[in-house]
Amino acid sequence: MTDSPSRAANARTRATGLRLLDAHNLTAAYYTPEGNRVVAVDDVSISINEGEVLGIAGESGCGKSTLGAILSLTAREPLVVEGGTLEVDGKQQRLGPRAKVQRTWRGSVVSLLPQGAMNSISPTMRVRDLVFDVMRAHDRGVKRSEALDRARDRFEELGLPARALDAYPHQLSGGMKQRVVTVISTLLNPRLLIADEPTSALDVSSQKALIDMLLQMLDNKIMSGVVFITHDLPVLRTVSNRIAVMYAGKIAEIGDAEQIASEPRHPYSAALLGSVLVPEPGFRNKRVKGIPGSPPNLLNPPSGCRFHPRCGLAMDVCTKEEPPEVGDVLRFSSCFWTQQNPGTPVPLDRVIPSEEATMVETDRELADQLAGAEEGAR
Ligand SMILES: Nc1ncnc2c1ncn2[C@@H]1O[C@H](COP(=O)(O)OP(=O)(O)OP(=O)(O)O)[C@@H](O)[C@H]1O
């Protein structure tokens, strides 16, 4: 995905410094048919500021979608949210098996744009029927004409053709379908939108159109913040103000997107970003081919720091004790090495020893994307 400098730069100036969401001690587990408890998000706390896009990065299976389900209050069996608190505008929503979700929260305070949403629209429903269903789920008394007027106004505000409301899903292109679903999921002006892999099935120009629309929605105060979950690190770096890097159900590192990309403080972030591009100037056209090994099975995660079996910087303490959060709530790294080496750049060649790291040429398109994202950030 190529990027215009102004879009990326604007994304970084939207955040106000005012708090939008404080999420404390979120824990959720899947209960398997065999009766096993798989803790997919384990005691995670994050904060998001007004106007901010918080990107969530991490390898497959590290808990990104589960975190999205907790934040959007959409967890369903076999996932059980076991504890935590969400705080928005001074109001609290307690989480847990016995906590009651306030009706006014789902859709209005937090809203989910689920992974693959565009394929889950019934082929026999027109877009306008979906609009009415979504609005009616929150307001039993809403009239069809009111719902459609609201959607039509919103489509016009965001430059989408109002005639798309009369279309069946198969009549829309993939990119248009995703933009339409995004608009529908924000019709109630949620404070926070959680977008789970919103761009992953789209071609490059549709990715750009969707991201532009999301940023315009933030500018127009349709919502006040976005949690953007994706595997695609160049996209994440372009769109996010801050990035949270997840590993095995925990936040390994969180911080300003550019800081995370150029000066990661956690060995896992360095390795993950190194698998896209090696930051050292002498290796700009090379990257590490993946991180050796694979994320742990969350049924039985490693003791101490969960990344220690794959980390070339691991010390004895990392195998036994939970790592400390080094930094503050907006920028921290959960790592003993970071604690013992303040201000020292993570040596990627020691995180992934050279005999295990296969260096490959960075493909032209990826290098251009990253160069564009960097240019935009300046
Ligand atoms: N239905 C389930 N039963 C048991 N374990 C599950 C179930 N769904 C997910 N998990 C486990 O929960 C963990 C987190 O899954 P999650 O889907 O949140 O990860 P993710 O980072 O979003 O992955 P991806 O990028 O592939 O979507 C994974 O390790 C997975 O094995």
Automatic annotation (TrEMBL):
Domain of life of the native organism: Bacteria
Molecular function as annotated in GO: ATP binding; ATP hydrolysis activity
Matching CDD domains: ABC_NikE_OppD_transporters
Entry-linked InterPro entries: AAA+_ATPase (IPR003593), ABC_transporter-like_ATP-bd (IPR003439), Oligopep_ABC_C (IPR013563), P-loop_NTPase (IPR027417)
GO BP: peptide transport
Protein name: ABC transporter domain-containing protein
NCBIfam families assigned: oligo_HPY
Coiled-coil portions: none
Start and end residues of each ABC transporter domain: 18-273
Record PROSITE patterns: ABC_TRANSPORTER_2 (PS50893)
Keywords: ATP-binding, Nucleotide-binding, Transport
A Pfam family assignment: oligo_HPY
